[in-house]
Amino acid sequence: MAHDHGSLTKLGHSASLPASPEEAELERVENPHADTHYVARFTCPEFTSLCPVTGQPDFAHLVIDYVPDGWLVESKSLKLYLASFRNHGAFHEDCTVRIGKDLVSLLEPHWLRIGGYWYPRGGIPIDVFWQTGPVPEGVWLPDQGVPPYRGRG
């Protein structure tokens, strides 16, 4: 699942969209500031997957915050990994938590959280939040900035 800086296969190369998350390959690079606790944030405002029952598309705004240790996720591989969910059938909770756990497995960060702000399915929005534990002391953690769903109100 992981590649180190010397063997990156996505960054700087032509890369096709993986057909599924199982085929996607997350890559990592060395953190040049491993001695410093800071938050790195990735926002994916147009995440899509499929309902495993109806096959209809589901849409979410994902926000991933993490405090890296020795590794950073390589952003192009993350974009391809997230896009690989577009034909993947899974419930909101499964997609959100799986992405968080896959990143933790790859990066072994000090801390990670993911917020999945899903658009309504059947008239009900489902938001999913997961984190690895308490935020490390002294880390500035901004709000994820995504308001609760209010429809046309």
TrEMBL record:
<comment type="similarity">
    <text>Belongs to the GTP cyclohydrolase I family. QueF type 1 subfamily.</text>
</comment>
<comment type="function">
    <text>Catalyzes the NADPH-dependent reduction of 7-cyano-7-deazaguanine (preQ0) to 7-aminomethyl-7-deazaguanine (preQ1).</text>
</comment>
<feature type="active site" description="Thioimide intermediate">
    <location>
        <position position="51"/>
    </location>
</feature>
<dbReference type="GO" id="GO:0005737">
    <property type="term" value="C:cytoplasm"/>
</dbReference>
<feature type="binding site">
    <location>
        <begin position="73"/>
        <end position="75"/>
    </location>
    <ligand>
        <name>substrate</name>
    </ligand>
</feature>
<dbReference type="GO" id="GO:0008616">
    <property type="term" value="P:tRNA queuosine(34) biosynthetic process"/>
</dbReference>
<keyword id="KW-0521">NADP</keyword>
<dbReference type="InterPro" id="IPR016856">
    <property type="entry name" value="QueF_type1"/>
</dbReference>
<dbReference type="GO" id="GO:0033739">
    <property type="term" value="F:preQ1 synthase activity"/>
</dbReference>
<keyword id="KW-0671">Queuosine biosynthesis</keyword>
<keyword id="KW-0963">Cytoplasm</keyword>
<dbReference type="InterPro" id="IPR050084">
    <property type="entry name" value="NADPH_dep_7-cyano-7-deazaG_red"/>
</dbReference>
<comment type="pathway">
    <text>tRNA modification; tRNA-queuosine biosynthesis.</text>
</comment>
<protein>
    <recommendedName>
        <fullName>NADPH-dependent 7-cyano-7-deazaguanine reductase</fullName>
        <ecNumber>1.7.1.13</ecNumber>
    </recommendedName>
</protein>
<dbReference type="InterPro" id="IPR043133">
    <property type="entry name" value="GTP-CH-I_C/QueF"/>
</dbReference>
<feature type="region of interest" description="Disordered">
    <location>
        <begin position="1"/>
        <end position="28"/>
    </location>
</feature>
<keyword id="KW-0560">Oxidoreductase</keyword>
<dbReference type="Pfam" id="PF14489">
    <property type="entry name" value="QueF"/>
</dbReference>
<feature type="active site" description="Proton donor">
    <location>
        <position position="58"/>
    </location>
</feature>
<dbReference type="InterPro" id="IPR029500">
    <property type="entry name" value="QueF"/>
</dbReference>
<feature type="binding site">
    <location>
        <begin position="92"/>
        <end position="93"/>
    </location>
    <ligand>
        <name>substrate</name>
    </ligand>
</feature>
